[in-house]
């Protein structure tokens, strides 16, 4: 499985960080339908979280039909999450990830926004 990371300084609850990252990985196809996920205990150990925190994530995603757990087969991806306005949802997820990264770097909101605007300017096609 692609690495899931938890940033304790992000201001976002750890369970929400894990949930959002798993949803993103499934939406972009890095975790395909049928892909196995680590056990709750293993993922909790890997992330340094409580078993209850990871169990909450798995329960929520199971309730949404995204994950399926069978005793013998463990937890697997059951479906790609639906997301009303998927482009808007994907953008919100990307923004949340960027904010977490910017905070980890110690950037203030103004500097983070300016970095995005510079990136947009650098990617604009030349006017002919």
TrEMBL record:
InterPro entries registered for this protein in UniProt: Tscrpt_reg_HTH_GntR, WH-like_DNA-bd_sf, WH_DNA-bd_sf
Superkingdom, natural source: Bacteria
Domain HTH gntR-type intervals: 12-80
GO MF term list: DNA binding; DNA-binding transcription factor activity
Keywords: DNA-binding, Transcription, Transcription regulation
PROSITE patterns: HTH_GNTR (PS50949)
UniProt cross-references to CDD domains, sorted A to Z: WHTH_GntR
UniProt name for this protein: GntR family transcriptional regulator
